[in-house]
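Handout, tutorial session.
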Amino acid sequence: MAHKEKKSSSLGQDVAYYTLLGVTKLVGYLPYFVLYRLLAPFIYFILRHVLRYRVAVVRRNLQNSFPEKSEKERREIERKFYHHLSEVFVDVIDMTSMSPKELKRRMVVENMEQTDREIGNSNWIAALAHFGEWEYFSVYAIDHPYHNIGVYHPLSNKVMDRFMLYIRRRFGMEVAPMNSLARPVVKNLKAGEQMALGLIADQRPRIADSDKIWRTFLNQDARFFGGIGNYAKRFGMMVYTLDIEKIKPSHYKCNFIQLYDGKEDISEEQIMDRYVAKIEEIIRRRPELWLWSHDRWKHRKPAEQPTIE
């Protein structure tokens, strides 16, 4: 795998990657005040007022998701969202030089011991969302050195793809592309090794990836990956999600919420229902912490495809 990646990497991409990594590492060593009180507000100004990064998408998503709110209320969510997104950008920079001890201080899992007792030696799925700081989920791998597999979609920009893989691997997380996930899962099952899958399952599936699971999500028809329910039922894997609360820039506390115990006699669709309902509940509580700039509802539901409320 590494040999193939090296062959496909050009000299220009290598230079760009190492330059990006070097600069972000240096920036990451700057004091907290500089990063989050100076750099993050500057990024906010550039994103929202200069580049107007996906402002139209954000406003459309907020209007369709919260028709009951006034325009003033939606604009306030928008303002807070761009502040949060700017801090997420800084978080990613900071993670290039952050120590494991510091990451554990930034993302505190309040019910880790209880969750560890529930999981025991079982295989399980962390069904996450683009909420809060999802990259900080790597904190779990620090004290759980079994097979923690983060599932991702490769980025079209090879330099940024390589950069994000570096960050996700720093704290012990393995990474696997969605289109070849079955291979490491089956390999670990055959070897009898404990495994945790980290799936960010609230994003819009590509046409080729979708198994046509539609749900009503934030007041709209939305397609979802069927992987959570499929893998949970197929391999008897427990399913959890994270209820995240932001304390201040780059500082969070969270709790694992069990959605499926790996044994209950329910369908794949019911597991997905629980995931969608819990994620929507979390988003409605702190909407500014979700990724509104993603064009989540780009695809329209075919007329013949049912939507589950």
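The second record follows below. Compare its token runs with those of the first.
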Amino acid sequence: MPTNPVLVVHGGAWAIPDDMVDAHLNGVRNAAAAGWRALERGGSSLDAVEEAVVVMEDDETFDAGRGSFLNRDGKVQLDAFIMDGATLRGGGVGCVERLRNPVRAARKILSDSPHVYFVAEGAERFAAEHGIALCRNEDLIIPREVDRLREYQAQHSTGGNDLFAPEISHDMLSHDTVGAVALDRQGNIAAATSTGGTLNKAPGRLGDSSLIGCGCYADNLSAAASTTGWGEPIMKLVLAKWAADRVESGSLPEWIAQEAMNYLKQRLDGHGGIILLDAQGRLGIAHNTPRMAWALRTKQEEDAGITRNG
């Protein structure tokens, strides 16, 4: 019997300023519309999360694709992951510098490779060999981010090589990682997450977004999850898998999403957000940051918002 499709997207969890609210709302709405079109055409949950994330990678509002934060060397380095809940197949890329839409390459890895991950030049080579055009890194850089990096480095210069010097007020620092989870008519779920990482990150640093079970996970027997926020604490807790496992044990995604955020805060003083969806179409959206951008589509409902915490 056909299942009623569900799609949820997020566009980051942090202290989104008032003057950026409209851009975030428009961005997540556009992403949800693209993913929903795929589902309405009878496409898979994988198709839906890929198309939704591509829209946000192309939107300079978010920390994904063009317009992402710059690393310490002034380059864009991108990570993405996508996972199929029906087969547990996944595809991920890390530290890529010449891909406009890293989630497209991740999908190609999932469908066309026996491997799960490719990184850096190897990922770009795989993408090119499978028909995905490469770009120059300069094409991904926008003036706003050049100015942001220059200002940040001027304010936080320590004169040394302190690995922790950039780590400040993580609920206030922008975490515009993007992601999507979907349920299709066949009853299969999928998840995808894409990011440019943190501002002024060390070259080669990999965050949670492209790590299976950390920033992204999907299993028809449990749930599909995509996280956003400060990557290191999320990685240490393998948070997406942690949340999915508790849904499989019988808890509602709505409760587990909030519990995951409490766990993140209590264990490691971490900040972020999560979207969670099971194969019955039950969902959860939660964050422990001041604001989070999200959008939802079902046959009965179309909604988007930037929720406040407290």
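Points raised in discussion: The first helix runs from residue 21 to 40.
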